[in-house]
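Here comes a specimen:
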Amino acid sequence: MSSSKSWGIAAKIMIAPAVIALLLVFFGLFSSRNTSELEKMIQAFNSASADGKMSQEAEAGVHAMHAAVYRSLALISIKNDAKAEQVVAEQLTLMDEMERTFESDPRQKTKDLLALLDAYEAKVRDAYDAATSDPNLGAMMLQDADKAYEELVVNLQGGSALSRMAEQKAHRDLDGMLVFMQSSQAVVLLVAVVLGLAIALVAGRRIARPLQNMQTRLADMARTGDLSMRLKRDTGDEVGRTADSVNVLLQAINEGVIEVNQAVTAVAAGDFGQKISADLRGDLALMKTAVNDAIDRIESTMTGLDKMMGALSSGHFSMRLEVNAQGAYAHTVKQAQQTMLALDSMLGDVGRTLAAVAQGNLAVRVTAEGQGDLNALKNNLNQSLVSLGQAMQAIRTNARQVSVAASESSHAVGQIADGVQNQTHAISQVAVAVRQTAASVMDVSRNTEQASQKSRHSVTVMRDGLLKIEKMVEVVNNIAVNSEKINKITEVIEKIANKTNLLSLNAAIEAARAGEHGKGFAVVADEVGKLAVNSAESSKEIAQLVQQAVLETARAVAAVDAVSADMNLIEIGSQETDEMLRRISAALEQQSRAVDEINANLTSVDMIARGNAAATEEITSSVMELSRIAESTRIEVDRFQTA
């Protein structure tokens, strides 16, 4: 690498201090005239201004700087920061040796050192390139470069003898230089000052400006986090090449970050098929492997969780996950496993409990442990079983009570049926007696009419009339007797009606106890009550009619007695007798109507009695059905076992 292309940073750094040092030395000599200081100044000036020496020095500095940069990058790539710091110290030592070597005059030695520097730089560059892809290979190549570095140091140390020879040569030329310097001291001082200031200013700007731009760019990059930004290459020297190297590094890092962002974004969207596929090296390759492994683990975990959720939705709670998860994912998988175990345990216990309930065992309880809603489910189900057991116990007790009540009601209805049968038979007898009484009344009426006619026609037939009157008296007495019977019958009917009404009330009470099954029974009981009331009213009317008939019969008997007593006075009182017979006839006619009414009422009572019999049969049927239902309910309830 020639100095005609560009000055290296090392040359710039070395020239500016050298010129400033020369200016200070010149100024000291001009004021003090110290001969030994002048000799040192001449020696340094001759060493710095020798023909071709400055360009070779600059080139050597460039090589040394390149080698140091690549060596440091290689050590960083193989993760050896301590070695990198050692390289910096070694490079400073190397620069000191180079300065001491270049104080000598021999040019051949300089060329040999440049060749060694070229070889050393090439080896370090190769080691850096290898370290970016394979750190182990880079370390081996760097060891080989270190051997070249040791050879370079040995040659630099051997150059000290040449420096001493150059120093002797400088002393021999000292006298001539003193004469020259004394004659042109002022001019040289002025030129040196101007030249030093100009060189220092230019060199400082050429060094500081690119570094300042690079620093500003890197600061912006660090502040914004924008890895797409690149360093601007302002010069063609080492600063520019360093900017290129940093840009290459930023490009590689940016590509890796883009790939990672794409992969992470896909994972966040639920797409686990997108992986980092870029060809990354070094730490970026390790990052690529780590991210891809993380995506695989996340995909495996999510796949397992998806299978578990599918099993849950299908009602299968025995599924278990076999996922090699770590960290938070392992905790999530563990939580899912515990959830499945809790559901499986709770629902399994619930299933066994309900199966036992289906077999009639209400004493079982859910014993599985659970939390939250599962614990609430357990408590609610157990409480429901307790309530169901209590309800079944109450139903069992009520069923037994209903069965007993139905049996008692059936017995009571049987008694009612017997009473209704007796009532019907009694009413039939009363009806026969009433019909007979009606026939007798008709006969009495006809006989009375005949007696009236005979009393008006002839006294001779009076005795026959008396006999007939006696017969009439007998008939009237019979009527009185029959009336008393009718009165007794009506009392019996009234008692039967009262009993029937009482039984209907009892039946209504039992129907109310039976609830829904006793509604029909209640309707029948109500109708029976109404029939009983009607029967009582009819019996009262019959009693009144019979009482009236008895009274009329008593009067007829009194009249007959009067006729019998006054037979001898028939002639005198024939008209009175005739009138009396007419009255008797009218009374008999009225009695006949009363008997007809009694007969009609007895017909109504007979119909009521028949209705009562039919209602009693329906009540009996309802009570028997209620008893059957109660017994069936008791049998079903007895199937369940309660605590």
